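Q: Structure tokens for this one, please.
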Amino acid sequence: MQVSRVNKVFARLGRFQVKFRWLILLVTILVTLAACLGLPQLQMTSSEEEWFDDWDKVKIDQAHFNDVFGSDDGYMVMVRANDVFAPEVLSAIDRLSKRLENEVPYADRVVSLTHNLSIPIANNEGFEVIDPFESGIPADSAQLAAKKSLIMSRESLVNNIVSDDAKETWVILSLKSYEGGIDFGKDSIAPFARNVILSDEFKSDKFEMLPTGMSYTEMEENEVISRECAIRIGIGFAVMLACLILFVRSLRGVIVPAIATVGGIASVLGVNAWLGIIGDESMVALPVLLGMALSVGYSIHYINSFRMHFRRTGNRRESVINAVEETGWPILFTVITTIASLISFLFAGIRPIRWIGGISAGIVFMVYLYVIILIPILMSFGKNAKPDPTQVKAAGATKADILFEFFGRKVCRHSGIVAAISAAIMLSQIPGVMNIDVNMDYTKTMGEKIPFVTRLMDMLSGKLGSLYDFNVMIEFNESDALKDPANMKRIEALEQKLGTLQLTKISGDKPRVQSVTRLVKEMNRTLNADSTEYYKIPDAQDMLTQLLFLYEISDADALFERMDEDYKTTFIHIELSGYDAKKIVEDLDSAKSYAAQIFPDAKTSIVGEVVNYAEMNGKLVNGLLRSFGGSFVIIAIMMILAFGSIKAGLIGMIPNVAPVLLIGGVMGYSGMPLDMITMIVMPMILGIAVDDTIHMNNHIKYGYERTGSYKKALLLSYREIGKTMGMTTFILCAMFFVFIFSPMGALHNVGLLSIIGLAAALVADYTLTTALVYVTKPYGREKRNKQVR
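A: Here is the predicted structure, written as tokens:
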């Protein structure tokens, strides 16, 4: 493909734009307004539910669990004090329990020390289930001590509801099932719970209340993400304007990219809203900032080219046409390759990642359209000027351009050494890449600088606190299967196995594993003179059936929280001490294996937050490989086609592997985790980094067609676009620099990795790209008799 021929097509496009500039501006304005009218309907979510398609087994199992046992959403408040049985603390717990039950929408049942705490005790008829503080908190210290002693004597409660040192206790609010998923919960339920928990009534130096819960935490996360996105985008826009003022020093050069940025981003998000597509608010800042950065980068290529010709000729319209002629094709090609890289996210198999790829590709394309339409048209308005005699002689080059040409001479002279050093650096990153840790740990993704994450970590450090858990659901085929002692003992055996998993939380000396067997054993003990010897499952089926019947008529709500009313389905709840991607996958595999071994005649399934995270880990690995592999293949094919040579195309890809390897090496060597946000960096950087490679290779090929000499072509390229490449990369890095100051761990990592990758890509293009072209001569033999045209 002859670059000079392609450039002539863009020259005709430039003339068309100048001739019909008013009509083009009018159409652009009308299209923008139509698209932006959809913005009020824009919907965003950060729900983890969006990671799973309806047919995913994880989601199907979770939905089935919810159908049997109700909503898995609920709120928990950890109460800390020197003694949670102190009268003032119990009074606060009682008031909190009642207010949560009365004031929170969809509240079902609160369980706390003072509210709905079910304890079986013996009586003349056998036993009864009592709530120790149902009649209120006794003023008499002896009575209070007796109730405390009763509660602390129950193995099913100690280190589950209350810690063995009586310094921590839970207030647990379960919610009724509700429509609308976790988004409805965080928007329409959680704020009411927060208003109660954080009210002045429950602020005291005698106790501390720490809230948590699925939709409660989602609410807090959503607020942090919304605030961080607004801050990053706002600062990013200010950085963009500052860079334009610094480099362009032209009113039109500042205003036009700003308009292109706002117009391109707003129109794409507006169309997204018109189509009813739900976006991901935890990632939306990335495509918006990407759109800002690329808008400025594309604009500077046009503006610098225009200025070079305008200084040399003084003819405004011809300079506009010449700028479109020289920069139109390489910018379009960079847009196509960037879009191809981003579209590869569609192969990831993860809904939010697919959205981020699609919306980013749309923004890149629309920003390009706005730039290619507005820059040439608005630059065409104005008067001509007299050519600068010094610039005519220097072909429009500045001192900085001459400096880049001098650098190019050094690279050509030492091209072999440059290639060898680059290869050594790239190879040194491979061990780091192989050591990347895929980890969906919520606390690391958000970062411990976030206040609510700090609170959650503080809770996790206590005896009762846990952030992650999962459930093993067991379904028998026959009704009343749970009235068989053999089945109950098998559940107990599975509990014991699950208690040995690597991440199962240990409180005191007991694993935090709970099931209906705890209730059964407490009842059996109660009916046998409260002897701890009988804290076990009875051997006789009649006795077990009687126990379950008596509990059902005494406190059916407590019983049927753990099993269904047909006595055929139950679950075991396992709480974890923390999150480790590798260990959790191993633990879940072990849990599945144990369940299958102990219950070959029943259906078993594992559900819960960590199951979702483990599934996400697998999706991340596969998604990264698919998206990055897809990006690499697509861009390589396009480079080969564009430059008309397999050798030239592959040479163009080598410098773009360098920044990706460097990013992977930094992540692996530093222990930076690959999570749902950082996974998009590598394909994105590949798509952006290839821009400078295309500009450099295109200019070299164009220079070779004009001169027949690789050295002259290289030096022309350094002189004509070396400065522009540096400026655009500087602006891109400056835009991503705003992420580094985010307290969100993942956004901080994205900013750091993007800067490292973009800087590495620029250095590779300044050195490795030109060195490889100079050594391999991919466009054919040199033609010494040609002159610069």
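A few notes: The longest strand covers residues 74-81. The chain has 27 helices and 14 strands.
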